[in-house]
Amino acid sequence: MTTHLEPVTFGERALRIEDVLALANRQAPTQLQNDAAYRQRIAKGAQFLDSLLDKEGVIYGVTTGYGDSCVVAVPLQHVEALPRHLYTFHGCGLGKLLDAQATRAVLAARLQSLCHGVSGVRVELLERLHAFLEHDVLPLIPEEGSVGASGDLTPLSYVAATLSGEREVMFRGERRQAADVHRELGWQPLVLRPKEALALMNGTAVMTGLACLAFARADYLLQLATRITALNVVALQGNPEHFDERLFAAKPHPGQMQVAAWLRKDLAIDAPTAPLHRLQDRYSLRCAPHVLGVLADSLNWLRSFIETELNSANDNPIIDAEEERVLHGGHFYGGHIAFAMDSLKTLVANVADLLDRQLALLVDVRYNHGLPSNLSGAPADRAMINHGFKAVQIGTSAWTAEALKNTMPASVFSRSTECHNQDKVSMGTIAARDAIRVLELTEQVAAATLLAANQGVWLRAQAEDARPLPPALAAMHEELAKDFPPVIEDRALEGELRLCLKRIAEQHWRLHA
């Protein structure tokens, strides 16, 4: 593990998206709050449940069945077996497995929720869940099968099962039986107490973990799209006055103003400029702050929705040991994350569409103001057999179309499930998975447009009357040249596009933040 940050502490302290991201990327150590008062508060919830059992109180999911079976009483001699049955019959997930980064985010989100101390779990459960993060023991979690209420039941059953020494985990790069990894680490698998399987599973950790990752990717993509736009203004000999500060004072959306300010800085707009070729550029340049500004202005409320969910007790029932009450509710409902992710995927797909339009201008001699067809750098005697970025633009159009297609909101597709007990559900996990997919596609569009913009800037620099690049763009152009030489003779660009995607995933380039 590479440590760059202070330890992330699970307990009474609220976490930020950045904490989850650091844990997901193995960039920070973790610790569990360990003072006596906190441990006692956690233990008190489990002790209160035990006292209710002694009195034979009726507690949903503890002395009753689950969901529509809540009217079915479970005799005390079977109460201990109920948690194992819960995670066992939910072991029916399908689809791809969550990757290591996403799995760590899920573990962090679930642990943070349970650390509120109102879920009726033991300190030992928090310690083992924390140990999974600390030792990078990653349950293999299929990503499909959750309707987002009662929480992420099926995917989180794989967390509950592996804590109990069942199913499979990824450990030190190998797919292993959870029981074998427990033995190797000298751990005794947990025997989940009444309510503990329900507390682990009946929450929003999968959608919330994915939402944290999606937010961080979107935040960086916003900055990258702004930098790409600046490069394209240079490549297309655009009008930098479109980003004048006085112009945006007349329509003062803060995020829109921020994007315009970034563009002014990148373009050194206060420096002497070349004579203008036109009064008004096409919308994909002129309106870039207006398009990107919607995402910029939405990040604050997206953060609020995600971090409130992250720092909430989102299972059911809630155990109030201080007042000795069991509160039955619906905190497993992931509506806020569902709406945030449905919104985010629309915001991000609009970024894909913007960059796709910029690339279309770059390759077309009718609109690129003197650049060669398809941005080919071939000399005149070989121009007829070289096609530069022609196929890249076709691929970008395909990726953009797929991103736009995936903006259909998942949250409006509630389905009545579980014998009509779960008759209104959030679909938050599907929305979060959709958002991740739209981000993947939009990052592909960004990679293609970045390489094309860089090629366009290089081609402009070959002209006798070429002007020096503004400092920020000159530094970016120089850095890109290390990995992505100009396309003179046609070459297959897949490897370079994949490298560019890797750089985006690493947030390699220092941009505007």
Structural summary, described in words:
It is a single chain. This protein has two domains: 196 residues, Fumarase C, Chain B, domain 1, CATH 1.10.275; 276 residues, Fumarase/aspartase (Central domain) (Fumarase C, Chain A, domain 2). It contains 19 helices and nine strands. The chain is mostly helical. It is 53% helix and 6% strand. The strands form four sheets. It has a three-stranded antiparallel sheet.
Please write the string of helix (H) and strand (E) elements: EHEHHHEHHEEHEEHHHHHHHEEHHHHH
Overall pLDDT score: 93
Strand content: 5-15%
- Provide the gyration radius in Å: 27 Å
Kindly report the CATH topology of the largest domain: Fumarase C, Chain A, domain 2
CATH-derived architecture of the largest domain? Up-down Bundle
What is the share of helical residues?
Answer: 40-55%
Looking at the structure, what is the overall shape? elongated
- Low-confidence residue ranges: none
Total number of distinct structural domains: 2
Number of DSSP helices? Answer: 19
Strand order of the largest sheet: 4-6-7
Looking at this structure, what is the CATH superfamily of the largest domain? Fumarase/aspartase (Central domain)
Biggest sheet, open or closed, and with what strands and sense?
Answer: 3 strands, antiparallel
Distance between the termini: 26 Å
Q: Please write the CATH class name of the largest domain.
A: Mainly Alpha
Total DSSP E strands: 9
What is the structure about, briefly put?
The chain is mainly alpha-helical. It has helices at 17-24, 36-54, 76-79, 82-89, 100-114, 123-135, 153-163, 178-185, 196-201, 205-235, 245-249, 254-266, 283-286, 288-310, 335-363, 390-405, 428-461, 471-483, 494-505, and strands spanning 8-10, 30-32, 94-97, 138-139, 142-144, 168-171, 174-177, 318-320, 325-327. It has 19 helices and nine strands.
